[in-house]
Structure formats: C-alpha cells, structure tokens
Amino acid sequence: MNIPKTHRRVVLVRRPPGEPAETDFRVEEAPVPEPRHGEVLVKVHYLSLDPYQRGRMRDAASYAAPVGLNEVMTGGTVGEVVKSEHAGFKVGDIVEDRLGWQEYAIGGGPTLRKVDPTIAPISTANGVLGMPGMTAYFGLLHVGQPKPGETVVVSAASGAVGQVVGQIAKLMGCRTVGIAGGAKKCAFVKDELGFDACIDYKAEKDLDAALRAACPNGIDVYFDNVGGAISDAVLRNLNFFARVALCGSISQYNATAAELGPRLMGTFVGKRVTARGFIVTDFAQQYGPAMRQMGEWVRAGKVKYREDVVSGIDKAPRAFIGMLRGENFGKMLIKLV
Question: Could you tell me if 219 and 234 are in contact, meaning their C-beta atoms sit under 8 angstroms apart?
C-alpha cells in the first residue's frame, strides 16, 4: 500500500463554555507517524462521534483525562493495519481502538482489537459491535436487570446506544417504550426496531400523560441517555423497586450552568428505586461473551442498527455539533476511506 508522507487530523484549540463551534477545532496536516517495536500504523476508515467526547473537551476532573489543547480529538476508530511492528497484528488486519480524529494513527496498546469483517460491516466495530453496543448490553442487562413482562423505557431511543437497548429489552420479553425527537425517528424505532411504542418528545405537550398511555403498567426499568426534563417525566412514573441505568445526560452537555436538581430523589425513597451510574469499561473483563452474543444477534437479524455516515475528516466538527443537537439519525460516523 502506498502510504503518504502527511495526513490530516483534527485538534482541539479551544474549550467551549457552552455549545461547541467549528472554530473550537482545527483541521491540520501532520507527518504520518512511524510505528516502533510493538506498534502498528493504522489507516483509519471510520471515526466514531459520541456524546462522551463533549465531556473530554472540558478541563475538569472526570473518569478520563481531558483532551489537551492542540492535541488530536479523542474518539473511537476502525481501520486497516498498513504497517506492523507488532507480533500480534499483520498488514491487512482490521482493528478497532480509540485512536482519535485522524487519517493515520499509531496503535498497539492493550485496547487494540481485531475486527472480523465477515460478521458485519466494519463500521459496526464503532457501533452495535463496539462501545455503544457494549454500553447497551451491560447497562440494560447488568444495571437495569429487566425481567420478562416488565416495562423498559429508553431515552434517545434512535441513537447508537438506545436503539440497541430497546431491541435487547424485547429479546428479554419486556414491553419496550422509546423516547425520541421527531416522527421519522419514532417511526424507525417502532416499525423497524420493533419497540412497542415510541414517544415523540418534540410533539408531546404532556410527556407524563404520554408515558402513562404508553406504559399502562408503569415503568420498571429506565435507561437514561438524556437527563433533564425528559428524565424527570420518566422518573415520576416509575414503579416500586424500579431500576434506573444512568448512562448519559446529553441534554445537559452544552449547558453553561447546571439546571436545578436532582429534584425527584424523594420519590426514590418511598418507591425503593435503585439508580446506578455506569461506564462501559466497568465491564471490560466481560466483553468477550457479550461481544459474541451481540454478533450472533446481529447475524440472525435479531438486533438491527442504523448508521448516520458523513464522508471526510473536515466534516467531523460540524457533524459532532449536529449530533449534540440531536440532528443525527442513528450511530454517527465519519467515513475516511
């Protein structure tokens, strides 16, 4: 393969106080790096855009270090090994790792994994068969612990995580209700993914009433991707001994000041609700069996997925901003090849 001398990458140049702007990033040319002993050079095919990346733009204490100014923006990638100094990987291998927003990258750490391109398109290594799929799997099954016949509600139901959560809930024998923004997303969630109902939060004037209608037996499990007013409405309709899996709060990520809250903890006492925040890497030791199960479900058509793909690394900042606004439809990816 003809490897160029330079490549493009996206670096962070400013920490936005609120919603990011395209000027917070810079697309620049840089030399293609050379792999050293124990490393590989990866030609990136897909970049993954995910809500957690907004948190990495802040210089604040969190479960992971922030992106440094003038450093490559963090993000999941899937690509092809084009040069190898690593005994475990050969040229031509398809690999997944968090190598950042760049066209070529050096990998070789413990998180670099091979991807089997015969199971599904390799883009899924950043989606249903990658971090978002594992987030859905463990967040629902291990944190939410759904039982057959229970009602599961998932917010951001058409997104990379939410669409998988709902389908797994159906496989577990649950009534599954999604919350999404817009008629097209709700139609996809209900008609293509097989949810029992989907509430369009943009169209509903009374979210509590819509939830009561869609969940006549109350809500046993809530998979929370959004926080804010939507989650308030769901929490008001929880059953006794309900479980809440706290995955994300995308409605708050661009806020310049924290909204008033938490507001509903009192109801958790009387109803004996369990709420648990989690990060997907909490379950890293169990990825193997989970990934095999997800692969089987995808191959059998039991878990479907939708991807929103934009071509060109220079489009990454704009697509990222749009994703935080909810403009994407499915798993957001940037295609480089």
Answer: yes
- Going from the C-alpha of 310 to that of each of 46, 54, 100, 131, 332, the distances in angstroms are 10, 19, 16, 19, 8
Token pair for 233: 């409405």
Round to whole Å and give the CA distance between 209 and 233: 9
**Cα three-residue angle 231-235-238, rounded to 5 degrees:** 140
The residues with which 83 forms a beta bridge, in sequence order, are 41
CA distance 18 to 255: 6
Q: How far apart are CA 29 and CA 6, in angstroms?
A: 6
Helix, strand, coil % over all residues of the chain, rounded to 5: 30, 25, 45
pLDDT for the residue numbered 260: 64
Element (H, E) at 320: helix 316-324
Tokens of 80: 């092809």
Give residue-wise pLDDT tens across range 235-262.
999 999 999 999 988 767 666 666 665 6
- How does pLDDT run across 5-17, given as a tens digit for each residue? 999 999 999 999 9
- CA of 269: how far to CAs of 157, 234, 240, 263, in Å? 28, 16, 10, 13
